[in-house]
Amino acid sequence: MLPAGNVTDKTIKELLPLLKKDDIIIDGANDFYQNAEKHNLECKKFKVNFFDIGVSGGIWGLKNGYTLMVGGNKDLFKTIEPLCKALAPKRGYAYFGPAGSGHFVKSVHNIIEYVYLQGLAEGVELLSKFKHPIQLDKQLKFGKKPQSLEAGF
Question: Is 91 left (phi over 0), alpha (psi -120 to 50) or beta?
Answer without folding.
Answer: left
